[in-house]
Amino acid sequence: MKKHAEQLYYRLGATLYMPAIRPDLAQRLTTTQAGSVVLCTEDAISESQIEDALKNINKLLMSFPQINTNVFIRARSPQVLANLLALDTIDHIKGFVIPKIDHSNVHEYKEAVEDSGKNTFYLMPTIETEIAFDNQELIRLRKFIDTFPVGIPCFRIGGNDLLSLLGIKRPDYVTIYETPVRIAIDNCITAFRPFGYQLSAPVFEYIDDKNLPLLKKELMLDRAYGFLNKTAIHPVQVDLIQEILSVKNEELDLAKKIILHQDKAVFKADGQMCEPSTHINWAKKMLAIDRR
């Protein structure tokens, strides 16, 4: 499972979140264009709705539709994860999103995974507590998650929760990279990506048409930061996310040239200097995406 996790990351596209309490989950799963969907039992619903949400998920799994998207469930707590793993039909989904992962709960989540005896699913832990602002604590968390017996397609970054910790609500005229959360994003990249883990870009919470130019600007910065997946909270965001975060033909062509000339110190292509010794990892990543 672990060796296939990165390939799954390349297929996630826009990850559309849906409250697990919705009565029309099956219909929405069959019509969505999102590369992946998360049925949320955490922030999207209230504490009093958890039992109904779990019943709704079980109903969906009992007559799971034929779909082309990867379905995950955001488990509200280790106990909710354990309850979901106990369902006979849980194999219909691809895996789980773990919210607010840090040292206060990571051991319980691992115990829930191990106690289930199941390891054919994937986990996407979400960094959205104060740990995001402490690089050394992120490294310590990464080393513990290394011991999990399941694949990790990516770590997700909870931008709004991190803004909340700082007492900030992002205004509708700046990208996430123009807020203090950029520091947390940098920390996550340096703590996880050099060690084989991918990351998902934070949500853009504005969904009106007038905000699409700003979403486009943020997506271009997401690409510059190496993200190929982003959380979506509304279907209107899906197409733009998947268009901008997809790998372009010119990128694939350049990657092939770098691989072809990897024995050279430096060469010119498409108006830029290419140095295989430093660009080879990027090139291999692009070609791996092309083969997904």
UniProtKB/TrEMBL annotation:
One of its GO terms (biological process) is oxaloacetate metabolic process. Its cofactor is Mg(2+). It comes from the Bacteria. Pfam families: C-C_Bond_Lyase. Mg(2+) binds at D161. One of its GO terms (molecular function) is lyase activity. Keywords: Lyase, Magnesium, Metal-binding. This is HpcH/HpaI aldolase/citrate lyase family protein. It comes from Spartinivicinus marinus.
